[in-house]
């Protein structure tokens, strides 16, 4: 079997169709080429490496293994759960893995895909040993750096320079790298920029929607620049809608790095549902990377973020299922001096 036919076998087995750029990326990786992938939010970048072990198995009659380095624990846990649900052998290592026997299973090659934080992969110890010895190491076909924008600072850098910096950090030879890309032109998203006085009354329209329509209100994420603002907005909305104590009946939630695990788990489990009772999440950048929520109606940025590259990723959370959606940025004068000059 050749590399052009292998994806078709996967499509038949799992009842889906790869997109054009996914096929292009898979072919490049399977042919042993370093590959730099830049695709719009929601395109399905995870799908590119999810089936690589099986594709290598079809090509070489022996399943390959893949190491995925990712910066966010919640993202890795979400991906492992989704892969396991469809029969893909995947696991996670690091401080969030309480079962130390997983190390032995990795060494034996029992997992086709292993997710790791950069710290677990680079720090000498039990987890790093799993990647550098045993069957997993012998069968290793690719190392995937997910959310690669986290590798280096993007601020005030032109796109070509960004790519160059990332490739340099990964010790990849630029002229030998295959680049797979698609411009992030999401025509189902209407973009609006509003001048803000940092007054919560400017979000009254959102509060009115929650009060009036309750569980049928527009599904919305409000991104805040910091935890304090996130908490203040959450408290303001909760008080004005008489938020109930029962977490499963709440209309509004917040998500940031200091949010209690119970609340984080509830958001990650409930908000992606099509019939979710949870309609509004106030969040920092800790919420979003890789989390698949296809039916978000509004993405609100309460204050532009420091870096220009953050904005399209956040705006891209809206309307992943193709629905008409809105991205609204509230620009506040007092934070503009700290904002990316290009964004200003």
UniProtKB/TrEMBL annotation:
Alphabetically ordered keywords of this record: ATP-binding, DNA-binding, Hydrolase, Isomerase, Nucleotide-binding, Nucleus
Q: Which family does it belong to?
A: Belongs to the helicase family. RecQ subfamily.
Q: Where do the Helicase ATP-binding domain residues begin and end?
A: 26-213
Q: Which reaction does it catalyse?
A: Couples ATP hydrolysis with the unwinding of duplex DNA by translocating in the 3'-5' direction
One of its GO biological process terms is:
double-strand break repair via homologous recombination
Enzyme Commission no: 5.6.2.4
Q: Which Pfam families match?
A: DEAD, Helicase_C
Q: Which organism is it from?
A: Mytilus coruscus
GO MF terms held by the record: 3'-5' DNA helicase activity; ATP binding; DNA binding; four-way junction helicase activity; hydrolase activity
Indicate the segments forming the Helicase C-terminal domain, all copies. Answer: 202-344
Establish whether keyword Nucleotide-binding is in the entry.
yes
Protein name (database record): DNA 3'-5' helicase
Read off the PROSITE patterns from this record.
Answer: HELICASE_ATP_BIND_1, HELICASE_CTER
Query: Could you tell me the superkingdom of the organism this chain comes from?
Result: Eukaryota
User: Which InterPro entries does the record match to this protein?
Assistant: DEAD/DEAH_box_helicase_dom, Helicase_ATP-bd, Helicase_C-like, P-loop_NTPase
Tagged with keyword Hydrolase: yes
Q: Which GO CC terms are listed, alphabetically?
A: chromosome; cytoplasm; nucleus
Class of the enzyme per the UniProt entry, highest EC level: isomerase
